[in-house]
Design goal:
Blueprint (H helix, E strand, L loop, with lengths): L1 H19 L37 H13 L6 E4 L4 E3 H6 L3 E7 L6 H15 L8 E7 L7 H10 L6 E6 L1 H10 L7 H4 L8 E6 L4 E6 L4 H12 L3
Parallel strand pairs: 3-4, 4-5
Antiparallel strand pairs: 1-2, 1-5, 3-6, 6-7
Helix pairs in contact: 4-8
């Protein structure tokens, strides 16, 4: 239990790092309900000038933001739990609403609890899940988590179509993790896999709106925040 609680604390710090990263270009409207990262839309997102474009310019501004976000998605080759080759950006993220998190199958504490939370979330989303909202679980130990191992793990949690578990080259996954901003600036803390398994990142690739929350929050709180942030205006 102490390790799990410690992981939550580290996840919150990692979430703050993510908000400061270039990947996050906007935040949700309305205050977060449970200490999440979403803030009132009247305040500018971190790193964004406090200037509001004229209404006729908003669509152009939105496209520009989305293009900037795309530059931060490495299009690395990965393999799903069905051993199908996929490209991270082209096949899993492009034009989608996604929730992304890191995990590993021999993790004790945070990962099983996170997977249980995510399983509840897929059910809460109803027919939207697998249609326009997708989940991506990325292993932190690809040398252990082969597609076959991931498939067994996915079945254990009742993963439905739309919840994809992926493995791949360890160095490329590490690069992807850092590009997504899921890291701690303290190298000692960052070396602990549990600190990355305690965070979920979600957003709408089409609009460039992204945020992150600790993975052990109540599933409904995460789903509500995700639906606010990812809606298209």
């Amino acid at each position: 239990m102490l390790r799990t609680l410690s992981g939550i604390d580290r996840a919150a710090r990692a979430a703050c790092t993510l908000v400061a990263a270039t990947l996050v270009t906007a935040v949700a409207t309305g205050p977060a309900e449970a200490g999440g990262l979403a803030v009132d839309d009247a305040a500018p997102a971190p790193g964004i000038a406090d200037e509001r474009p004229a209404p006729e310019m908003q669509s152009t501004r939105r496209r520009t933001a989305s293009e900037r976000v795309r530059d931060n998605f490495p299009n690395i080759l990965l393999y799903t739990q069905d051993n199908e080759p996929v490209r991270f950006y082209d096949d899993l993220v492009k034009d989608r609403i996604v929730l992304i998190y890191f995990m590993f199958t021999n993790c004790e504490g945070i990962c099983p609890a996170t997977s249980s939370n995510v399983a509840r979330m897929q059910n809460m989303l109803g027919d939207r899940f697998g249609r326009d909202i997708f989940f991506i679980a990325i292993t932190l130990t690809p040398d252990v988590d082969s597609p076959e191992v991931l498939k067994t793990y996915a079945e254990r949690y009742g993963a439905k179509p739309g919840w994809t578990f992926v493995t791949g080259d360890k160095a490329e996954i590490e690069m992807l993790r850092r590009k997504l901003g899921v890291y701690d600036p303290d190298p000692v803390v960052d070396a602990d896999l549990y600190s990355h398994a305690g965070l979920v990142t979600f957003g709408n690739e089409r609009t460039g709106r992204w945020a992150a929350l600790p993975s052990l929050m109540k599933p409904k709180q995460i789903v509500d925040a995700m639906l606010r942030i990812t809606r298209e205006r």
